[in-house]
């Protein structure tokens, strides 16, 4: 009896390349358009169909974690608590911070007016009080301009930083980069508390400094990218979408519960600063837990392999620059200087748009994958733009149509978030169990209950159809916003869009399945760049559309949103399963020699034997 660990593929043909064995594909597969979607969701294929197998790579992380004690084994459950705490602080600060900014800007506005007109008497502006004089148009205008500066600064800086942190995490691990990304929140909340506690000493414009530190450390975008990368490292492909859905559920749960808890805390303590102190404590707790308790998801072996691959890519770029200079004999001699080439290389790496190269891998063998990545990048950008840009405008639209007050608006947001959490925590795992877990267990039973090794074979048919399903329900719900004129049907349309929450988790999982392990952070970082850009421009676009059409046709922004979702559905029809990045997709990398392989093997063995005392 053959006692070797079976793989999820047939006709495996491993070859040494410094990583887990790679299953080669038949030459005929490169000319096919992919598996036909008339088959079952998982497109199960027998051993006799070996010539139609797609290119697969064993999911090697299972070997890295096998046999480790539980306190050293990374899993999504290590992140659920800290991530929920972070999103709770993030959601709880939305309303209190806006109210605090209104008060500080209003206080500064009337202080300036008092200086210009000493004979006129103005009511004092009390922090945490009911300052009716702050509802004037000039104050609201200044508040809008100031909040735009804060969001644009944080979003713009995070667009540059988040991809860099994602790429660095591939080489140096997720933990320390998560701590760095969370540290900006501590600085931001500290400056906010000081500005509110000592308004006569610290000008409200110091909040810009807080947004700077928040953005330069990646802000919420980087935390999301690194968290998703951590989960992708330690979760097999069959469960990855569900695990990422857990983090999405934490986000919606924090956005739903955070504002309610912040409001209750303010009432109980009679202090507007109480939520800010709690938020600061959440950030500190998050950092301490991640640093001292959460195990690293990337083994030393994988980090070293990623570092060596990165160095090889940089060396290849230097060679390309050298050859480009040598091919131009008329160029001045100083241009051929090695120092100048080094600076040119640094400038190329500093290009804020450079991370987007992850969506366009080179090589003819990656042509279909290139199309997949571009289509999924477009779809995910539409999803995040709808969340960041249209969410606030939708609440304003509901207030305009149904005369909602703060209570009704808060209840509406809580209902949407609650149903999204239910979909991600209940519906999604059930679907995954029926169409993925049960077939895998059945196959394991056929293999004599031996441990089944999953393969890295790209997104499957279930991923593709879940994406289309989620986008369809999102579109139906958004179209409901256009046509309904009653509160009940409006809320029902919002519940319909709750199934759209599957799209984000599914597409993040699909992206991580289609690239090699050492590129997961870079790919999600590139996606984070699009998220950060959407965070800046989407509110401006949708706010502008709503402001310009509210008197003639207030549903215009919803029509635009529905059109974008319609294009997303159309794009999803061209997304194909079972595509994986070719290893030379981004740069020509030299083969690793035997010394490197021996060193990586030694590192792996050392890592397994170290740290026998549990973490506290």
What does this protein look like?
With 616 residues, the chain is mainly α. It has one domain: MFS general substrate transporter like domains (Growth Hormone, Chain: A, Up-down Bundle). The chain contains 19 helices and 3 strands. It has a 3-stranded antiparallel beta sheet, with no helix packed on it. α4 packs parallel to α6, α5 runs antiparallel to α7 and α7 crosses α17. The longest helix has 41 residues. The two termini are 44 Å apart. The N terminus and C terminus are likely disordered.
- Order of the strands making up the biggest sheet: 1-2-3
Task: Supply the number of structural domains.
Answer: 1
Give the % helix. 55-70%
Enumerate how many helices there are, as a single number. 19
The total beta strand count reads 3
CATH-level-2 architecture: Up-down Bundle
CATH top level assignment:
Mainly Alpha
Summarize the main sheet: 3 strands, antiparallel
Tell the overall outline: globular
Q: Taking all residues together, what is the mean pLDDT?
A: 79
Fourth-tier CATH superfamily name = MFS general substrate transporter like domains
- CATH topology name, in short, is Growth Hormone, Chain: A
Termini distance? 44 Å
Subcellular location: Membrane
Domain Major facilitator superfamily (MFS) profile: 85-580
GO molecular function, one term: transmembrane transporter activity
Biased composition (Polar residues): 1-12, 37-49
């Amino acid at each position: 009896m053959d006692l070797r660990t079976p793989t999820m593929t047939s006709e495996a043909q491993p070859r040494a390349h410094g990583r887990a064995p790679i299953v080669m594909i038949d030459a005929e597969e490169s000319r096919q358009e992919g598996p036909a979607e008339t088959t079952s969701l998982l497109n199960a294929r027998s051993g006799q169909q070996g010539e139609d197998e797609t290119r697969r790579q064993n999911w090697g992380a299972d070997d890295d974690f096998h046999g480790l004690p539980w306190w050293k084994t990374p899993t999504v459950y290590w992140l659920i608590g800290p991530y929920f705490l972070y999103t709770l602080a993030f959601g709880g600060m939305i309303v209190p911070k806006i109210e605090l900014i209104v008060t500080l800007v209003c206080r500064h506005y009337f202080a300036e007016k008092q200086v210009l007109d000493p004979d006129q008497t103005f009511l004092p502006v009390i922090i945490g009080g009911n300052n009716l004089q702050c509802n004037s148009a000039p104050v609201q205008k200044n508040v809008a301009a100031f909040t735009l500066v804060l969001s644009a600064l944080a979003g713009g800086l995070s667009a540059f930083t988040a991809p860099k942190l994602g790429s660095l995490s591939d080489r140096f691990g997720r933990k320390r980069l998560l701590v760095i990304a969370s540290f900006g929140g501590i600085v931001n909340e500290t400056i906010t508390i000081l500005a509110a506690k000592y308004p006569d000493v610290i000008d409200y414009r110091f909040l810009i400094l807080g947004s700077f530190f928040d953005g330069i450390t990646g802000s919420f975008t980087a935390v999301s990218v690194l968290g998703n990368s951590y989960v992708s490292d330690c979760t097999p492909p069959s469960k990855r979408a569900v695990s990422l859905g857990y983090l999405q559920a934490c986000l919606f749960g924090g956005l739903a519960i955070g504002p309610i808890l912040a409001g209750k805390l303010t009432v109980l303590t009679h202090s507007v600063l109480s939520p800010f102190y709690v938020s600061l404590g959440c950030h500190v707790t998050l950092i301490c837990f991640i640093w001292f308790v959460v195990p690293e998801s990337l083994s030393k072996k994988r980090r070293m392999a990623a570092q060596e691959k990165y160095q090889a890519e940089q060396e290849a770029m230097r060679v390309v620059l050298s050859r480009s200079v040598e091919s131009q004999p008329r160029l001045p001699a100083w241009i051929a200087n090695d120092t100048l080439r080094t600076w040119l290389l640094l400038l190329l790496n500093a290009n804020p748009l450079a991370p987007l190269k992850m969506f366009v891998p080179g090589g003819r063998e990656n042509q279909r994958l290139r199309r997949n990545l571009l289509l999924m990048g477009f779809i995910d950008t539409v999803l995040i733009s709808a969340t960041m840009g249209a969410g606030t405008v939708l609440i304003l639209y509901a207030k305009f149509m149904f005369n909602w007050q703060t209570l009704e608006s808060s209840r509406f947001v809580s209902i949407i978030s609650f149903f999204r959490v239910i979909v991600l925590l209940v519906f999604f795992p059930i679907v995954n169990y029926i169409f993925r877990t049960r077939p895998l267990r059945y196959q394991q039973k056929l293999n004599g209950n031996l441990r089944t090794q999953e393969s890295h074979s790209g997104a499957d048919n279930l991923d593709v159809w879940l994406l289309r399903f989620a986008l369809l329900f999102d579109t139906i719900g958004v179209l409901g916003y256009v046509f309904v004129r009653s509160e009940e049907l409006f809320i029902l349309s919002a519940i319909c869009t709750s199934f759209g929450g599957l799209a984000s988790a599914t597409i993040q999982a699909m992206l991580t399945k289609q690239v090699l392990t050492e590129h997961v952070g870079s790919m999600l970082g590139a996606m984070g760049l699009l998220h950060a850009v959407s965070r800046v421009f989407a509110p401006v676009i949708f706010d502008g559309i709503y402001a310009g059409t509210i008197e003639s046709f207030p549903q215009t922004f919803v029509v635009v949103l529905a059109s974008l979702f319609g294009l997303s559905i159309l794009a999803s029809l061209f997304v194909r399963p079972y595509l994986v990045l070719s290893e030379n997709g981004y740069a020509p990398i030299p083969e690793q020699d035997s010394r490197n392989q021996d060193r990586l093997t030694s590192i792996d063995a050392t890592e397994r034997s170290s740290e026998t005392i549990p973490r506290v």
